[in-house]
Design a protein that fits this description.
It is a single chain. With about 350 residues, this protein is mainly α. It folds into 3 domains: about 35 residues, no CATH class; about 120 residues, no CATH class; about 160 residues, no CATH class. It is about 60% helix and about 0% strand. It is built from 15 helices and 2 strands. The chain has a two-stranded antiparallel ribbon with strand order 1-2. It is globular, with a radius of gyration of 24 Å. The protein starts with about 30 loop residues before the first helix and ends in a 9-residue tail after the last helix.
């Protein structure tokens, strides 16, 4: 998110735009620029905080439709053994393909929509049979999910479908992680507005008590702290802290046992970050679409991302203040808390 300095006055400020600006063809840096990674606005970046252990499994199955069926079943129900065999699924492949085509979606999305509907209605432990994928009810269920996702996000794909399913769950994982990202994003960027030291440790110390358990259970940095705390012979902390950490440890164990719940939580977390970004950046009077990230960027966890964003916002604010921007100068003055 930080711009690289060049000894030239460039319309793109040194950001690689891959020939998208009028002056790109005559630019002396055209060749090295074209070889650099593409950039996308940070508010449009497709975040993915899914741990590698939960990534989709590759199935070596000759029949692609059954491979999709088995992979979707694992994603939703978290079991390697499927209730239906390849030969049984093959009996209605044509019907499923036709139904998916009529709804304008892939067979994989058709599978996921129906399986998620079954899991929400009956629970992830209830058996799901391939015959549930044929008939009017299956088509209606897939169409309902497609409409809901399009209404919420403006498009329809696998990640958004799983994120939408988390919104509908009783404990609403999405709401919990969204609240957590709001707290994290605003606290860390606000911290870096006035200070230059590393914010993550201070953030967890100050905000652990008010962060949702679901957010803490899916946070990369907190998971390392929690694992160390669990191993302590005499666990540190106040009674309230011990209770909080024990609850998060219990939820972490539950997510490890139920991979489908974990996948939904991490997908919801990735979506929550993207939805939180515009408000966080706007608090600095900066256009969210004026900040770019490399298309191949990766962060260990959301706190690493917020720290990098906070540093970029700090540099922009300081640069503006150096140019006598009064509003930027006001933002660099820490408000004084009156004492009685």
């Amino acid at each position: 998110m930080l711009r690289e300095p060049f000894n030239l006055e460039l319309a793109c400020f040194g950001e690689s735009r891959h020939g998208t600006l009028p002056g790109c063809n005559s630019c002396p840096l055209k060749e090295p620029c074209s070889k650099s990674p593409a950039l996308v606005p940070v508010c449009d970046f497709d975040f993915d905080f899914m741990p590698s252990a939960l990534a989709p499994v590759s199935w070596s199955v000759s029949d692609q439709i059954f491979a999709d069926y088995a992979n979707c079943y694992l994603t939703v129900f978290g079991q390697h053994s499927n209730p239906d065999s390849p030969s049984r699924i093959a009996n209605f492949c044509d019907l499923v393909s036709a139904a998916a085509d009529n709804l304008g979606m892939s067979v994989r999305l058709f599978f996921l929509a129906n399986m998620l509907g079954h899991a929400i209605s009956h629970g992830v432990t209830a058996k799901f049979y391939g015959t549930s994928l044929i008939g009017i009810a299956a088509a209606r269920r897939a169409q309902t999910y497609k409409d809901q996702v399009c209404q919420s996000y403006g498009q329809f794909d696998e990640k958004l479908l799983l994120a939408e399913s988390s919104r509908q769950s009783e404990d609403s994982v999405y709401v919990a992680v969204k609240d957590g990202e709001e707290i994290a994003g605003r606290w860390i960027t606000g911290f870096l507005r006035y200070r230059s030291d590393k914010p993550i440790g201070s953030f967890l110390n100050d905000c652990e008590h008010k962060l949702p358990d679901a957010w803490l259970a899916t946070d990369y940095h907190y998971s390392h702290f929690l694992a160390s705390w669990v191993r302590e012979a005499e666990r540190s902390g106040t009674p309230a802290q011990k209770k909080k950490r024990a609850n998060v440890a219990s939820l972490t164990g539950q997510l490890k046992r139920h991979s489908q719940q974990a996948r939904v939580a991490y997908i919801a977390k990735s979506q929550a970050v993207r939805e939180t970004i515009p408000g966080v950046i706007a608090a600095f009077d900066i256009d969210p679409r004026s900040l770019f990230v490399k298309a191949n960027s990766r962060w260990n966890g959301t706190l690493s991302f917020w720290a990098e964003l906070g540093l970029a916002l700090q540099h922009i604010t300081i640069s503006r203040a150096a140019k006598k921007d009064r509003r930027a100068m006001q933002k660099l003055v820490k408000p004084q808390i009156p004492t009685v």
